[in-house]
Structure prediction request, 602 residues.
Amino acid sequence: MENTKNTKRILVVGELADGNVVGIIGELLGVGRRLADALGGELSTVFLGSSIIETAKQAFAQGADSVYAVDDTVLEDYQPELYASVIEKVCKDLAPSVLLLGATPIGRDLAPRLSWRLKSGLASDCVELSIDPETSALIATRPVYGGKALAEVDCGTTLPAMATVRPKSQAALPPDPARTGDVVLLNVYADPAVAKTRVVSKTTAEVKGIRLEDARIVVGGGRGMGSAENWKVLEALAEDLGGAVGATRGACDEGYCDTVFQLGISSKRVAPELYLAVGISGASQHMTGVSFSKHIACINRDASAPIFSEAEFGVVGNWEDVLPAFHRKVKELLSG
Amino acid sequence: MKFLVFVKQIPDPEIPPARFRIDPQTNTVVPPVGSSPVVSLLDELAVEAALRLKDEHGGEVTVVTLCNNPAMNVIKKPLAMGADELVLLQGQAFEGGDAFSTAQALAAAAAKIGDYDLIVCGTQAGDWDNGQVGPCIAEALDIPCITSVGHMEIVDGKIRGERTIGDTTETVEAPLPALVTAGNNVGKARYPKLRDIMAAGRKQPQVWNAQDLGIDHSRVGAAGALTKVRRLYVEESVGECEMIEGETPAEAGEKLALKLREMRII
Prediction:
């Protein structure tokens, strides 16, 4: 029997979209490389899907030593119980010491189920990972209390130790086209009968311009915007800044903005170069989604709003008075 | 229809950063004087979601909370909102748990209550933000689980929940009994009326300990935890907010643009 205590393998659960390895996987391979080197082990990744072998090869250049795939038409779309059952079996085969997933909608849905099945300690949405040199335990640092504190978590002794990693918190390695290899097909039976849920319909929101998650500049609006009509002011500004618009829960509850663009706890998280908060008080559940922005600027009429203690630059005033002048100046500066 | 909702009492997440303190001995938050705990936001939305389903389909909503230092007016808020029963899991054995061992206790409570059609939890708690307990309970009970759901409805004895993945919103269906975790796009939670707050105040929770759940002490609390918090700390503050001022609000707006340009941010 394989000694699961000593494989020292780091296994990254891959994600694919539109025929490419998604960005977070490159970041997971970046941090995974460091962990593998610290443990003296192998960095592997596994992809689930249908006709994915060619795409999966991209992971070699991103730092993987070995790339595995479970290729089956029933795995075309993510289904929680089905994916969990396949990865559970893959973990029995490959016996990783550490299992990493992206803190993406899929990763955050899948990881707790796997942690239950594998009886593995799981740290969610981590921003830093290391290996304890004494115990070889996975040590994860994660923001808690809406980003007001950080917790350093020991993921325990059951292998694999698990973590989901916050997108954009880790640097991907520079792609190395000289690194190649063959994708190993794993003979794991994906049994569609284990699925307990099914998707009955899907609608994709129309994204004008840059995707929120990819935007260098995010303009955020709150309930203080007052109407869906006023919301267009933010969209016009974001367009001129080459950015995207995000919303608070309050703004979405009022119907100013589609909930798809909601930022905060259990919705989207962004880490742009600039987050410009307009009419946003800075509630903890919202700041969770934006606290890792490089710079935060805010415009708010209430000088005592919590947003001012999180922002680097602040203007006290009604957005109706401040924003048009700001926007004009931005246009002038960007055209000159 | 029998609905179970799991809620958590947490320190007020809106404690200003300047007053946010941690006890490094216990790795816990020391709430400032006068600050009251709250029901975690998404758990409150879970209560709201269950009450809406009850409004439409009838039935009973039982709220379960695991808490060793409950503020009664806080944990009774779901009752004031319209829930029918409150179960409080309390006892030394539950102390120091993580997501995994908490899920063990809550799953045992669900099994003890029995005959549930739908369990609703918040997707993640506003303090630890793990988002693990809901799916783990579903795994323990071997029932379907749909996470991070906004709108939900029961159609032909099945639960349908809308969830957002990236820019796509999908409607996911599962047979009952099932577990759903409420996301932050459920919509507004109802405000309890004064009369209902008074009535909730008179209602007593059922209190169960680990023995009542028939669960071994080794599976709950610190003993059943798989992870351990080594350190909880506050990062050094990055400094004060630079207030951009002007003769008029418009001038301040222009100066903000200039500042961001000067810093090469835009």
